[in-house]
Write a structure and sequence with these properties.
CATH topology: TIM Barrel
Mean pLDDT: 89
CATH class: Alpha Beta
Largest sheet: 11 strands, mixed
Number of helices: 8
Helix content: 25-40%
CATH superfamily: Glycoside hydrolase/deacetylase
Number of strands: 11
Order of helices and strands: EHEHEHHEHEEEEHEHEHE
């Protein structure tokens, strides 16, 4: 099976309008999406369960077979870190200040996870997955994610079925809007997606609300999705992939825990 996972990151009150625009574009193409919600206070707004309109929309998405996942708690890198200088610099480079779960121990990770789950539950959302901001988690944080009972998590390179111990190797394509890398990154996304589709390999595309601010990054995401769908790929969510009883033949590693 050749599959495509489209994920929409950073969904919150502050990003509700561009998030809705992205979902309109995805649904017009018949795509399912994994929608990553920042549950806590962010960018001057309170937790998402205080936004009735947003919560209603998210419940509608979930009823339409899209997947809602917890995306950290506050999406902000903590002031205190338990990581060394090299790890902190790597987090800043990769996640640009949002590496919230890259710097925390098991207890703090569990606290933030619990806060987020409570808010999403209050919003009426059934959440199966956890994706850390920037895809970065400390080993202790990953232990807390699994202990919390989430079905799946993801990194830049993998998708993990936490309940079944399976893991798929599949790097994600993501944009860098607002930086000098936006143009080269968009071109790279288009070329890598085309190369991947020609070889019938699994494809992961990540979209962020800010991608819509640059036509190049918007076009790159949509071109990658269109290439896969035109080639007959199956659009799946992370949750449906983790629930599948059959391992895809490409990019899968069994027995990883």
């Amino acid at each position: 099976m050749s599959w495509l996972v489209v994920s929409l990151h950073d969904v919150a009150t502050a990003t509700a309008e561009p998030s809705r625009r992205w979902m309109d574009l995805f649904e017009a193409r018949g795509l399912q999406a994994s929608v990553l919600v920042v549950p806590g206070p962010w960018q001057g707004h309170g937790p998402v369960d205080g936004d009735r309109s947003l919560c209603s929309w998210l419940r509608t998405l979930q009823a339409s077979r899209h997947d809602i996942a917890q995306h950290g708690w506050s999406h902000v890198e903590p002031a205190v870190s338990n990581r060394g200088i090299a790890a902190r610099l790597a987090g800043r480079l990769v996640a640009r200040g949002c590496a919230e779960f890259w710097h925390v121990d098991r207890v703090e990770a569990a606290r933030r996870i619990g806060l987020g789950r409570a808010v999403l539950g209050s919003a009426g959302l059934d959440v199966e997955g956890f994706v850390a901001p920037g895809w970065l988690m400390s080993p202790e944080a990953r232990t807390s994610v699994k202990a919390a009972g989430f079905r799946y998590t993801t990194t830049h390179a993998t998708v993990s079925d936490l309940s079944g111990g399976r893991e798929w190797t599949c790097p994600v394509l993501s944009q860098r809007p607002g930086s000098s890398l936006a143009g080269p990154g968009a071109r790279a996304t288009t070329h890598i997606a085309a190369w991947t589709v020609r070889r019938r390999r699994p494809l992961r595309i990540a979209a962020h609300p800010g991608d819509l601010d640059d036509q190049r990054t918007t076009d790159a995401v949509l071109a990658a999705c269109d290439a896969a769908m035109h080639a007959g790929y199956e659009s799946v969510t992370y949750a449906s992939l983790a629930r599948s009883p059959v391992l895809p033949q490409v990019g899968a590693v069994a027995g990883r825990r």
